[in-house]
């Protein structure tokens, strides 16, 4: 065999170096293809899971906020003929007052915004002036605000008030009786104590509610209503 023939036979297609080099590349490409697909699908799946988790968290927050806001929006307003809400709160002097303490007798609750302010002072003095007349009509009197006990006692001593003053710092009784709500002053809106008065009958039901009370002559009007029950 000639030298030229031997050289040609060494470069036959079956044993060509080119084919051997190409084979690994082909295998690599077939292996990396599914891997890329898996990574892509895994990425999409993780993004989908993150979005789903985020959506669930947002839904929980929304439901939670709805539960928190619903009671305030759906709380029924106190109306005549309704059973008076119970309460148990501290009063000036350190003792505790409850609605049950006045079972079987009429009761006047006057809610005032703040102790020792002009309107509240006049109102408390007027009710004190008529205290004996209310007692003769079988009616007890209680003043209610969110002031702490020390402020209530200072208010009582300064103006010689003869009516128990209840401290409702947590606004539980104020809200139950509709005496806590939106107010406006100088164009600004805010939450605070509304000046209202509630007359409860001996049967424990609300007999009359005065809203947006004007202090002058109010105590006399309430006394007349208590006498008529």
Q: What are the salient characteristics of this protein?
A:
7 helices; alpha/beta; single chain; five-stranded mixed β-sheet; disordered N terminus; two-stranded antiparallel sheet; 229 residues; globular
What's the short story on this structure?
This protein has 229 residues and is an alpha/beta fold. Helix content is 48%, strand content 19%.
Describe this structure in words.
This protein has 229 residues and is an alpha/beta fold. It contains seven helices and nine strands, in the order H-H-E-E-E-H-H-E-H-E-H-E-E-E-E-H. It has helices at residues 3-9, 17-74, 118-129, 131-136, 149-159, 172-176, 218-228, and strands at residues 88-90, 96-98, 106-111, 139-145, 165-167, 180-185, 188-193, 196-200, 206-210. The strands form three sheets. A five-stranded mixed beta sheet has the order 5-4-3-8-9. A two-stranded antiparallel sheet has the order 1-2. Helix 5 (149-159) links the parallel strand 4 (139-145) and strand 5. It is globular and about 40 Å long. The model is unreliable at 1-33, 44-48 and 50-75 (pLDDT under 50).
């Amino acid at each position: 065999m000639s030298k030229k023939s031997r050289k040609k036979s060494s470069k036959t297609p079956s044993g060509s170096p080119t084919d051997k080099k190409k084979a690994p590349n082909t295998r690599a490409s077939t292996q990396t293809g599914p891997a890329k697909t898996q990574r892509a699908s895994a990425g999409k799946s993780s993004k989908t899971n993150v979005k789903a988790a985020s959506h669930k968290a947002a839904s929980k927050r929304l439901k939670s906020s709805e539960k928190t806001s619903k009671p305030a929006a759906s709380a029924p307003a106190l109306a005549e003929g309704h059973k008076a809400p119970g309460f148990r709160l501290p009063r000036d002097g350190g003792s505790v007052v409850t609605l049950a303490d006045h079972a079987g007798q009429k009761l006047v609750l006057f809610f005032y915004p703040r102790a020792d302010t002009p309107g509240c002072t006049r109102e408390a003095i007027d009710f004190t002036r008529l205290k004996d007349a209310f007692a003769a009509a079988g009616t007890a009197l209680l003043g209610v605000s969110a002031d702490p006990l020390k402020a209530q006692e200072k208010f009582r001593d300064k103006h010689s008030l003869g009516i128990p003053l209840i401290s409702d710092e947590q606004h539980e009784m104020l809200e139950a009786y509709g005496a806590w709500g939106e107010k406006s002053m100088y164009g600004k809106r805010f939450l605070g104590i509304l000046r209202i008065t509630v007359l409860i009958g001996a049967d424990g039901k609300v007999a009359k509610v005065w809203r947006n009370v004007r202090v002058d002559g109010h105590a006399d009007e309430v006394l007349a209503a208590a006498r008529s029950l």
